[in-house]
Amino acid sequence: MNTLFGAGRRIVRPRSILFFECAFFLFMSFFCASCTSTRNALFQELDAEVEGHNYGGAAQRIDEPGPSGELYGEKDGVLFYLDSGILYHAAGEPRKSIERFDEAEILIEENFTKSVTDAVSSFLLNDYQLEYAGEAYEDIYLNVFKAIDYLKLGSFDGAYVEMRRLEEKLNLLEDKYEALAQSINSSPEAKGALKAASTDFYNSALARYISVLLYRADRRRDSAVIELGRLKEAFSRQPALFDFPLPPELDGLLRRGEKAKINVIGFTGRSPIKRASTVRLTTGEGLILVTQEKEDAGGRMVLVNAAPIPFPVSAGFNFKCQLPQMKLRPSRIKRLVLFVDGAAAGELSLIEKMDKVAEETFKLAQSMIFFKTIVRTVTKGVTIKMAKNLADKRAKAAGGGWFSVLSLVGGVAADVAADLSEEADLRAARYFPGQAYVGEFLVEPGEHELALEFYDGAGRRVYREEIPRRNYTQEALNLVTACELQ
Question: Which ranges of 330-474 would DSSP assign to H, the alpha helix?
């Protein structure tokens, strides 16, 4: 017979029960370890459709997944609608695009509000276990795409609504994440220690450009002048994000003339992806030392960061966890040229690095992810270590043998399960573009056939998008868009 000491009394456990406890501990550890998996392989066929510029086919594949199974989990509703929406947008199906983006916007608001109200109760849950609430840039740019969709349908009212909605989001962006930080700080684990981050992005030149065109076509010249001034301010007051020249044609946007104006917006590349970065945690008395290692150019692992965090914990524990980091996906496209009736009419100019905006606005969530992950890892890790110690004591008291083996293997499995449960949440919209280019071209009123060509850095043509012949008039908003999402 073996003993386990409880609260002031002697509890007797038969060997069979001790064996069952160890076996159950082992089973649950491996079960938990098997719960985390990746779905990246499921997207291979979809990625191939996008790379082949079959955006409509890719969108339909999302709506009706093949034998490989569902591409999005039950907590990935926002991602489903974002990816579907942008692909329908690129395919030139504005009604379906608007429908998908509407659903995404509703879910983003609902899920983010829920994350604020449930911040305390969900503090010890990995973000993968929560409904995806979208990144700040996804929530902002979906209104840009919806505005373009409405303009393609001839709805100025719809476009105005989207521009106003985008303006509200930019104005309240930091306040939104401040509310989340305050909610986290109300938890017993945080105790007010979390500091909300800020962002240098508050003005979208791309959105201002669309507003200028909208007001100009609606003959609201004064409003167009104001928006043009704000567009230029986006460059002058956000130099880290707009580290390239203003498009040269801006000063001509509001000039009157006898010719028809064709405005072209070209989207290239893709938004950043998230990669996992591993950090190691070592506890001292009342603090956690956080260290991070990365591989240098010579292939050696070097220490890039070390910081102590006050936390009520005993010394002598060592853990590791993962944190998400934004990784840019540089586009091979470096030049966009418009052809009118077979002749080159001129190049488009870069107006916004949407991928840089994504990277910058991610800072708002990054500090909270860091704080929650560190606290959750240590809290959970200490609990597992205590359970392992208890299992070891029970195995030794039972006489060792298979009990010790089960305890040892179960302890290893528990460590693996803990590591896997702290995998970084790498969810993000998969097909948002990375850069936006614009250009205005003057043509004689009447029918014209256009084509937009995309070139790489070596001057090789990568893709040519044909725009069907149509009539371009002097007073109308003649907006043309094209996407090369690679």
Answer: 354-361, 363-397, 402-421
**Which helix (H) or strand (E) is 450 found in, with range?**
strand 446-456
Q: Give tens-digit pLDDT for 15-61.
A: 433 433 443 333 333 333 334 334 456 688 889 999 999 999 999 99
Unique residue bearing structure tokens 């907590």: 75
Q: Is 399 left (phi over 0), alpha (psi -120 to 50) or beta?
A: left
Provide the 8-state DSSP code for 476.
Answer: S
DSSP class per residue in 216-230: HHTT-HHHHHHHHHH
Those residues whose C-beta lies under 8 Å from the C-beta of residue 160, and which sit 6 or more positions away, are: 214
pLDDT tens per residue across span 142-174: 999 999 999 999 999 999 999 999 999 999 999
Strands 273-284 and 287-295: antiparallel
Neighbours of 41 (CB within 10 A): 9
Q: What is the pLDDT of residues 71-111, one digit of tens each?
A: 898 999 999 999 999 999 999 999 999 999 999 999 999 99
Residues 6 or more apart whose Cβ sits within 8 Å of residue 328 = 272, 355, 356, 359, 434
Number of H helices, E strands in the chain: 13, 14
Q: Which amino acid is at 173?
A: L
Q: Report which of 453, 437, 436, 448 is spatially closest to residue 478, judged by C-alpha positions.
A: 448
